[in-house]
Amino acid sequence: EYKDLKKTDIIVLKKTPLQLPEVAGIIISEFQTPLSHITLLGQNRRIPIMALKNAQENEALKKWNHQLVRFQVKTDTFFIESIDHIEAENKNNKTQNLKFDLNQDSLVVLDKVHRKSYKYIGHKAHNFSELAYISRNSSFKTPESAFAIPFYHYQKHIEKSGAKELINKLLFYKAHHTEYDSIKVILRAIRNKIRFHEMDSRLAKEIGSLTRNLGPYRRLRFRSSTNAEDMKGFSGAGLYASKTGVIDNVNKPVDEAVKKVWASLWSFEAFMEREIFHINQRSVYMGVLCHRAFPDEEVNGVAITANLYRDSYFGYVVNAQLGNENVVNPSKGVICDQFICYPSILNNMYDENNTIEIIAVSNLNEGQMVMTEAEIKNLANQLYRIKNHFFQQSYHEETFNQFAMDVEFKLDKESRQLYIKQAREYTP
User: Fold this and answer.
1) 393-400 contacts: CB < 8 A, separation 24 or more?
2) Dist. CA 71–CA 64, nearest whole Å
3) % helix / strand / coil in the chain, to the nearest 5?
4) Edge to edge, what strands does the sheet with 108-109 contain?
5) Could you tell me which residue, 44 or 426, shows the higher pLDDT?
6) Which tens digits make up the pLDDT trace of 189-227?
């Protein structure tokens, strides 16, 4: 529980937590890949996270219990040393005011790049439009029937539902109190206001009409696209919801899916993570990225266009797994494919040997890699195109090799066609 921990605590756990509390470091007995959900959140927070077998029984750790220490984690080792004072935090505590635009009231089709659209449809949907543009001259696809619901509709809904009044109450309360149980109660009330108030019938009709015009798909995936995720310095990984809805289906209605995504903006985990980063909660808005759903997929995976195992070395790190088994937060005992690949588009030194460096193989596929060599090489080339495109879009202090993207992909069940569903900047 949040209330039992201090910001200066380093906690030792047997299992991976579902949420990341505000602490100074974490040691977990379960193995973590560099692309695991908890690892990425720790990197975003700039706190050390380490996997150590039988950590809670480790005598070398026990001797530091209830002492002030400095904790550092390296690639293959860690250091703990005593300190006689709590060192000052080297963080920027200045309030972050996020950009938003509430004037766009029409649904936005994501078949082309919409410059600065992150201000009204969020970063995820904006990046998706960039991916759609890259895919025109590439061998990957983006999920079809893609469009975005802008912030405007979320804002209207919270006003009509009464949720906005509760949000104001929450922010006033948080400014004067820190009782987490009371904060959770208000957040739950906000989510209920959003979920159980009827969605504007005109918006529901517009979603149905646009979907029919975009293609044959009626089963849609509705994904969070806030202005407080997928941004430089704050990935927001895992904080918000994705839901499935089916056009004209009373058992899986579209309006309920959209409202659940809107409501997830005010989960306790999301709210507290934004607090930790001093994000102005009044400037946070929820857009929704919509595209055809994949009820069955052959492979799903995550890639980082950097070598996380060897600093300053070339290569892209990939985790891939069969079907819908999660690669960033897998079921207990499940291992995914982990490998480093290289784009042949560069004609680099690795091409002659067709190098794919295998780190681990999925235990769900009878000892075989879940992707073929040709599929991995194609993925590497598409990752290079994506990295190059986003690097060219804005100014970066990093060199091209230092710059990295965090990319989610899948292979379709029937065709094994490569789909890229998400891309955001990766901050190591």
Assistant:
1) 393/130
2) 11
3) 35, 20, 45
4) 108-109, 147-149, 286-292, 219-226, 242-246
5) 426
6) 999 999 999 999 999 999 999 999 999 999 999 999 999
User: 110: which 2 tokens?
Assistant: 């994501």
pLDDT digits (tens, 9 = 90+) for 327-375: 888 888 899 999 999 988 666 544 545 589 999 999 999 999 999 999 9
Please tell me the pTM assigned to this model: 0.84
Closest listed residue to residue 256, CA positions, set 265, 270, 238, 243: 243
Nearest Cα neighbor of 266 from 283, 290, 286 is 286
Amino acid in position 62: K
Other residues' Cβ atoms within 10 Å of the Cβ of residue 84:
6
pLDDT tens track for 100-139: 999 999 999 999 888 899 999 999 999 999 999 999 999 9
Which amino acid appears at position 294 of this protein? F
Residue with tokens 């935090």: 89
Closest Cα partner for 33 from 298, 229, 304, 238? 304
Cβ 409 vs Cβ 301: under 8 Å:
yes
Q: Which residue carries 């026990």 as its tokens? A: 62
Q: Residues 6 or more apart from 400 whose CB is under 8 A from it?
A: 387, 388, 391
